[in-house]
Structure formats: structure tokens, C-alpha cells
Write the C-alpha cells for this entry.
Amino acid sequence: MKQYDPRRTIAVRFQPDPPVGIAGHLPGESHPTGMRIAERERVEGGRERISLVPESLDDLWHLQYVLEPGDLVSGDTTRRIQRNDDQLRDTGGEREHLWVEIEVDDVEFARFANRLRVGGVIVDCSREDQLGQHHTLNVEEREEVTVTKAWQTDQLERLQEAVEASENPDVAIATVEEGAAYVHTVAQYGVEERASISGPTGKGEFARPRKELFAELATVLDRMDVEAVILAGPGFTKGDALGYIQENHPDLAAKVTTVDTASVGDRGVHEVLKRGAVDEVQAETRIAREAEAIDELMDRIAEGAKAAYGIDEVAEAAEYGAVEELLVLDERLRQERAGEGDWDVDANELVRTVEQQGGEVTVFSGEFDPGQQLRNLGGVAALLRYRLN
């Protein structure tokens, strides 16, 4: 009888969120298109009313940073209505289907619930007795929602980015070394670890065959049903893993591109993005561009070259027309526009100034490492055309 040896055990850890693909669909489902704009019209006060149909989790993420306090958002919803006779019996009321328009005061991207929660006071409603009440609209995929606001240029560009996102294939990054493998997915709102596979390789009689690790990795990738896989890692392990996949999973092997990296896991993924490997399989990757920009910024800062960070330095550079590319964190931009920040500079005016002088504006996602690095620099920085001093 064979004795149990823990070194023959393979451990697979999946993230607890639902098994969704890049765009929030279940594996095996047809892939959704990008955000759909159903209708656009000008309204009074220099505002524009745009009716949108988010088709993916990425689209809901984009909307989070488009919506601001004071915007008007409308759509179909349900609301618990307390009737007179219910008040006597304390039944809690009954839910009714309503159309509401709310003035936004709070927005939350609930990624694991696959919805965007938009809270505010009801300013128009199919039931007049609900006016002035607070309500939360749960915006979900494939449900139309209408937004009325004074749109900023970068916000309209963000919508267009979401509309065009259907051209981007779903991508998984698998990083592998001896005894361990990690699988991440790439979405516009950031990178997420979906699984980690580990187990000591050992030597001698009880050594776990490497093919067990490769088999588990292939099974995970097969189940994800992505359109492209980047297989990365140090040394020869990734090549051996590819050989196993080619022999045993030929359909999966046709999707694989290999990349050399010094690390695995989160650091390995950052290397993949920095080297542009994701760009080779996607028409455009937001986070890959952010990784490239933040690395260029950090290199320039280290060299004392053409860079500025912090609102005071960046505002001065913009005033002199020196900003080649403005780097700003999405959450910070939204906070400043809502009047909740501490900048002495108007955020919209800063963006307009840079654009009018021919500079680019890149809004970073706070969900991913480059955005976190930018947050540590005050949430705003700039690559300059020339040094100011």
C-alpha cells in the first residue's frame, strides 16, 4: 500500500469571485460587444443627454468615472412602496416597477455583484409621491441608462473607448516557474489574479512530476475560454509547459504566445505589460499604456529629467505650455471635479489647458499598479517637453 506523501499534492487556489471572463461574461457565453450608445441629444444649459447600454463589466467600470455629483441619471428600477394600510400593519411595503431620474450624489462600482450602484435624490419619477426621496439605481449589463450632464472631453473619450472595446480580445496571462503557476486576466479596469497553482517539486522517489503542474494549468486556461494566452516566466519552465500544452491541448496551444520574464505572479504580469506583449494581441490595452507611461515618468524623475509631479509642479508646467502628457488618477480627477479634493487648481481647467496646448491626457485606473504608483505621487504628474529649471 502506497504511503501518502504531501509533496505529491497539488494546490489550486481560485479567487472567490464568480468565474467571469474579461468582460463579465460566463465562460462559454458569446462575447459581448462594447458599450452601445442608443441616443444622444442636446438639452438646455449646455448639457447633453446620452442613453447608454453597458454590455460588460468594463463598461460599468468606465461609467463609474464618468458620473459625478449633480449629474442626472435615469432608468427603470424597482422600489419598495409603503401604502397607507401597510403602515398600520408594518409590512415594509411592496416593490413596484418604476422609472426614476435621480440627481447623483454617490457612485459605487460593485465589481463582485456585477453592477454599478448610483445613489441620489429622485427629481423625476413615474410616481409623483416618490419625488425628493433617496434612491439607488442598480445599473447592470445590457440595461439601458440615460445620463444628462455637461460632458468633459476626457469623459466623452472614455465613452468612445468603451464603445470600441469590443475589438479587444480576452487575454489571460499565465506565469510559471518550477513548482508554481499563476493565472491573471486583463480587463480595462485592471488585472486580476484568477488562480494560483502550487506544490513542491521535490526530488527522488516522491518528486511530483512537472506535468501535473502543467496539466492543472492547462485545465484552468481551457476552462476560462479566453481568446489569447500569454505564457511567461523565467528559465525553461514555460517552454516545457508550452510543450505539454501543444501535445495535450492543441486548441489551447494555438492561442499561446510566450514571453521571457524574470518574475512570476504580479511582478511577472507587470513585466509582460511593460514589454508590450499584451499590445500584440489587443488592438489597444489601456493598462499596458499606463505601465509604459508610469515607468517613463519614474525614469525621468530618477534622472532629474523632464518630469513634474504633484499638483503645484504640474499646474506650473501647464501654465508654461510644457506638458507633453498629463497623467492623472481617475479617482482623484473625479474627487476634484466633485469639489471634494484639496487642489487650488480647477481640474477641468487643467485638462483643457493641456489639451489646448497640444498635450495628451491619460487618465489612470486606480485598480492597477501604475495607478497606485501615481497615487503615491499625489494622483497627478506630467511628462514634459522641456525642463522648467
